[in-house]
Amino acid sequence: MTQQKQISQKETILTPRFYTTNFDEMARMDISLNKKEFEAILEEFKVDYNKNHFIRDEEFNQSWNSLDPKTRALFIEFLERSCTAEFSGFLLYKELSRRIKNDNPILAECFALMSRDEARHAGFLNKAMADFNLSLDLGFLTKSRKYTFFSPKFIFYATYLSEKIGYWRYITIYRHLEDRKEHRVYPIFKFFENWCQDENRHGDFFAALLRSQPQFLNNWQSKLWCRFFLLSVFATMYLNDFQRSDFYSAIGLDARQFDIQVIRKTNESAGRVFPVALNLDNPKFFQLLDFCSAQNKLLLELNNSDKNLISNSIRKASAYFKLSTSLLHLFLMKPIDTTKTWNTVR
After folding, report:
1. Domain limits of the chain?
2. Phi, psi of 312, deg, nearest 5
3. What sign for the dihedral angle of Cα 281, 282, 284, 290?
4. Distance of CA 64 to the CA centre of its chain
5. Helices 309-332 and 284-303, interaxial angle, to 10°?
6. Using one digit for the tens of pLDDT, what is the confidence trace for 130-151?
7. How far apart are CA 234 and CA 219, in angstroms?
8. Which pairs count as long-range contacts for 171-174, CB under 8 Å and 24+ apart, including other chains?
9. Residues 146-191: pLDDT tens digits?
């Protein structure tokens, strides 16, 4: 019998978040600068290439109780986090579509069709969880989760990167498992090739939004914000995956090498839209991310320990300081001006 599982874990900076924004500002947004691009994107969304893709086949119709308990637990966590992230996108896009449809119909319809895609992804993941006798109560999740306010431009930066890094994560895993079926512990990975194309199209939509608002890309403040969001998205993935390296081992991947490849590809993609990209060839870049990951792991261990509370508090303060200063060092590294020198990182 399937039991409902309500999300109750403590939210941290690394957990999937739910967002809201200034809907009035979005409704007033002028996209005339590249309206034809939006019309073309809208037509592509309407085609709905994956309409018949997310259909479970016979391979799902078996018991998964034989999975190693550790692998099973790691995989369930992967499904839960992925479903939460996809459902977060659905809620944001759906609300944007509803709130701006009278003032900005092209954008509203694009958001409505993207919410369709995200709902399909979340539903498919939730059905996968049912194979492990679990499910997310999405209604409860909608009401219980805290919503983070981001202004539209921050939504654009963050969501563009989220969609593009999602594309590179999915396609990298798919290509890895395509010839290594012994590591494909569950059939959901077969769906990643087409699935990631949804992520890619969504990313292209947000790229068009950014290009339609030059003030979000062409001044010194924008360069700082682009650097901030690039580092935030990359560091969040890196620290999360460092904690879950056993999951990647279960599917035959080295978590660190996987993250480095995904970060490089996403940085290159972002460099075609953002005015800056991070200099990943700086030898200190991934060294500092490794150090941040170690400090974050230490913090998790200390948070789960109830021994020697005074000593733990001192060690936690030290770890927070080292983590924060290392992230600041990463942010202050000289970026690459992609409007002039993008070829240097190819």
Report:
1. 18-57+64-218
2. -60, -40
3. negative
4. 27
5. 160
6. 999 888 887 777 777 788 899 9
7. 23
8. 171/196, 172/258, 172/261, 172/262, 172/265, 173/251, 173/253, 173/258
9. 888 999 999 999 999 999 999 999 999 999 999 888 888 899 999 9
In sequence order, what are the residues at sequence separation of 6 or more whose Cβ sits closer than 8 angstroms to the Cβ of residue 97? Answer: 108, 109, 111, 112, 115
Which distant-in-sequence residues (6+ apart) come within 8 Å of 303 by Cβ?
316
Distance between CA atoms of residues 273 and 291, nearest Å? 29
The helix/strand/coil state of 21 is coil
Pairing of strands 336-337, 276-277: antiparallel
Whole-model pTM: value is 0.90
Class in CATH terms, 18-57+64-218: mainly alpha
Whether residue 236 contacts residue 280, with contact meaning beta carbons closer than 8 Å, is answered with no
Query: Which residue do the tokens 């200390």 mark?
Result: 302
Phi, psi of 276, rounded to the nearest 5 degrees? -135, 160
Which amino acid is present at 327?
A: L
| Cα end-to-end span (Å), the chain | 52
Six-digit token pair at 81? 């986090």
CA–CA dist 21, 107 (Å, integer): 15
